[in-house]
Amino acid sequence: MTAGYHELGIAFMKKISNTKFNNKKNLIEVLEFNGTSLWWWMEAFLYLSFAYRDSFEEVVKAIHTKTEMNKTIKYHIAKMIKKQLIKPYLTCRSLIRKKQWQIPEPVKTNKIPLLLLYWHDKGNKPYVQPLIDKIDKTKYQIYALDIIGPEEFDNNVFKEKAQDKIVSHILIENYFFPEDKKELNMYIKKFNDIKKQLIKDKNFQKLFVINGVNIWDLCKPQFVWFFDVRMKDYLIQYISARNVINIVQPKIVVSPSETSEFDKNIFHICKKLNIPTIAIQHGLINDIRLIKPKGHNCPIPTITCVYGIADKKFLLTKGNYPEDSVLVTGNPRWDNIKNKQYDKKDICMRMGLYPDEKIVVFATQPLTLIKNREVISKIISKAINELQDIQFIIKVHPMETVDYYKDILNNKNVVLVKDMDMLNIIYICDSLIMINSTIGLETLIFDKPLITVNELIGEQDFINYNNSAIVVHKEEYLVQSIKDSLYNSDVIFKLKQNRERFVYEHCYKIDGKAVDRIMTKFTTFI
């Protein structure tokens, strides 16, 4: 069990950023950046990014569980290859996306300009389209800024945006100009000089202690990697975002997410220009980027629209957000749950399933460690083999490949899907298994039994489901948990009893009006 490492990791990150060293400044102050701090752009990278170096999270977890920082050979090789490719990749990425972009620069009109952040990812459309549909097109000119997303080179997304006659799409890469290079180089020199000082500062390194063990040597490669590789890209995006804002001059900016580093660009720039910003909660709120000390100078939106009362409480108490900056609206994506008509027979027919037989879903996650992904997949595969009379759907996460699970899952009674609407899948299932995801909330909204398996790979649930879900603590309990969720009337009744209150606290009103509540706040700013 590794319960507790998440809290330990967050406490560690807050300690190294907020503790003054040399009796002078803390790291947030040392990394001063235009009235805020570069720390707010780097903390999530240091703690969570595992692609090239060992993340701080991996180090903290290893120390907390008293395990060695050993990975599989495959994992080490993957990191070595990525380290060699990342610099040329970042250099070429901008050129490739500019080449793919075939949309002319929009012509300004007399309408009121609005700016919407639109990640380059077809999965992002359900989060932004409901807002676009509600905006009065006769009154407002909608600019949508194409930002690098999980599918940054997807030509289908480019084509779809090129055919859009309602929204004026613009590409972030087109807004970094030759004259911006001088400012970029100034920032790079400033922060690289600070980096050189920090990695020599023994008092700074003394802050890197977990459970009495100094982990600076384990954290140093990731720390240096940010400045040497990742920082330049963040700074280019900041300057580009500022250019977009200055040229478009929007009256308001709306983002379908609230924690990304690009969001921080927009929030910071717009605050300096007195432009209101609205951000809409995109995923579970337990992100290290949302936990802030009192009096912090981290860029946040004017208004953050959250799913439920529990999320607002989190931001006020742990994020130290101002009371009037958080609005409970529900999730716009969940409006479809109320408004959409579902046909179980039709969905099952398209998937080759029998609607009258039990259906269980396992929703995958792109887990930090490849080893954990393999472990949980094999556990699920073993359970499937023991439950031959049940139909299983493996819903592959958008950031993963179906082929990966084809190679691991050796089961006949399984349907593998990736691009199908998750709400359709939840609607037809009788029970759903998952690791940390908003899919858990959606399952409860549909009044379906939920099973979480985080603990089987030593991960914590980001949400305390308060007996509204079955939490599997050991592998040998999984099969029985699945059976209980389908056939045990006492278990089914107790889960149902606890769901209603939980859904209200975490998801608010499932009444099809979340977008309307956001638009009501939107209109007060115009």
Compact description:
The protein is of the alpha/beta class and 526 residues long. The protein is 48% helix and 13% strand.
What does this structure look like?
- 48% of the residues lie in helices and 13% in strands.
- The strands form 4 sheets. A 7-stranded parallel β-sheet has the order 5-4-3-8-9-10-11, sandwiched between helices.
- The protein has 526 residues and is of the alpha/beta class.
- The mean pLDDT is 89.
- It has a domain at 338-507: 3-Layer(aba) Sandwich (Rossmann fold), CATH 3.40.50.2000.
Feature tags:
single chain, 526 residues, alpha/beta, Rossmann fold, seven-stranded parallel sheet, six-stranded parallel sheet, 21 helices, 17 strands
CATH-defined topology of the domain at 338-507: Rossmann fold
Strand order of the largest sheet: 5-4-3-8-9-10-11
For the biggest sheet, the summary is:
7 strands, parallel
What is the CATH superfamily classification of the domain at 338-507? Answer: Glycogen Phosphorylase B
| Number of separate strands | 17
Strand proportion = 5-15%
Q: State the secondary-structure class.
A: alpha/beta
What is the average of the pLDDT values?
Answer: 89
What's the CATH class label of the domain at 338-507? Alpha Beta
Please mark out the parts with pLDDT under 50 across 5 or more consecutive residues, or reply none.
Answer: none
